[in-house]
Specification:
Helices cover 37% and strands 18% of the residues. The protein is α/β, with parallel strands linked by helices and 268 residues long. It has one domain (2-267): Alpha-Beta Barrel (TIM Barrel), CATH 3.20.20.410. An eight-stranded parallel barrel has the order 1-2-3-4-5-6-7-8, surrounded by four helices. The mean pLDDT is 93.
């Protein structure tokens, strides 16, 4: 199954482009779930979610709605030896696990998290502490060597592909999968803002159709090797994420119709 959605949903600036102008915040997720069947919950990057909050979210969306949850930054950017936070984080997700709506925990590591024995050992400990499907966004291309990808497969850690500016040291836009969960995060291609987290241009990139279209063969390749594929748009400024997610959904549907038509022609 291919799921398309955005990183987060609770952005007031998406109104009125996406959300109706007078829609209250509490109704955002219900409205969002009518357009998309998936969302990467990202408020958890700065605050461990409460189980009661996730139960309330589940109550507002269809049972077919799926989510991934972004791992807390203390576990990706600070990486202390104590992994008690990972265990408590996993416990907070129990409502999503019980409902069958959790696809994965998404760990976004910084560029400074390089591939070395210490980092690999940390990933193993983190995976064991969470005891949940884990997808890692590894922004340093030292992780893209074949033997390292084999290591990730061995531990069942998914590799999150990224669409980002073409900058030295950043992984290329490739179709890689190392678990039964395929994952692609679309950050935009503003090269001059990539190293400036506070710069609004970083998340203000508007994807062109040809840029999205170039991903269709890669997505199909990932889908052949996985059970689920999550496509996450993180270019959230000016509602560009929902526009791109909608555009990608239409391109995938068009591609599927074309493939089905070709298959029928060959069979006939």
């Amino acid at each position: 199954m291919i799921y398309v959605g955005t990183s987060g949903y609770g952005y007031h600036e998406w109104s009125p482009v996406f959300y109706p102008q007078h829609l209250c915040y509490e109704e955002y997720i219900a409205y969002y779930s009518k357009r998309f069947a998936f969302c990467e919950l990202n408020a958890s990057f700065v605050r461990v979610p409460k189980a009661s909050e996730l139960s309330a979210l589940i109550a507002r969306v269809p049972s077919t709605f799926r989510v991934s949850v972004k791992l807390h930054r203390r576990l990706t950017h600070e990486r202390g030896a104590d992994l008690m936070l990972a265990r408590s984080f996993a416990r907070s997700l129990e409502p999503l696990v019980e409902s069958g709506q959790l696809v994965a925990v998404a760990a976004q590591f910084p560029f400074s998290f390089v591939n070395n024995p210490e980092s690999r050992a940390y990933l193993c400990r983190l995976r064991a502490a969470l005891e949940l499907p884990l997808v890692a966004e590894l922004r340093n291309d030292s992780w893209t060597h074949p033997e390292t990808l084999a290591f990730l497969r061995g531990w069942g850690v998914g590799f999150a592909c990224i669409d980002a500016p073409e900058i030295a040291g950043i992984p290329n836009r490739t179709a890689v999968s190392t678990s039964d969960i395929g994952y692609v995060r679309f950050h935009g291609r503003q090269a001059d803002a990539w190293w400036l987290p506070g710069d609004p241009r970083r998340h203000g990139y508007r994807y062109r159709q040809r840029e999205l279209l170039s991903w269709i063969p890669r997505i199909r390749e990932i889908a052949k090797r996985t059970r689920d594929v999550c496509l996450v748009f993180n270019n959230r400024r000016h509602a560009y994420a929902v526009l791109a997610a909608g555009g990608m959904t239409r391109l995938l549907e068009r591609s599927q119709r074309s493939r089905s038509k070709t298959a029928r022609a060959r069979a006939g």
